[in-house]
Amino acid sequence: MTAPVENAKRIRSSEELGKLVQQARREQSLLQSDIAGLAGTGNRFIVDLERGKPTLQLQKVLDVLDLMGLEVVIRRKGSHHD
């Protein structure tokens, strides 16, 4: 059994994910262009991600999250343990 996820944040929309990414970027004192350069994507992609654009390519989003030290954890609703 895996330990509970620390500092977990429930995300229910692309807008909520965008705000979380923006907050994490600012906490790391990074510019949007910094993330874009490190992720090998255009600055526009990071802008769209932070604005919550719902049609972004999932793999690119996952790559940016990983780059920022974030991860996606999927579990059944109502489940309190992994």
Automatic annotation (TrEMBL):
Give the matching Gene3D superfamilies. lambda repressor-like DNA-binding domains
Q: How is this protein named in the record?
A: Helix-turn-helix transcriptional regulator
Task: Return the InterPro entries for the record.
Answer: Cro/C1-type_HTH, Lambda_DNA-bd_dom_sf
- Per the UniProt entry, what species is this protein from, by scientific name? Vreelandella glaciei
Q: What CDD domains is this protein classified in?
A: HTH_XRE (cd00093)
Q: Name one GO molecular function term.
A: DNA binding
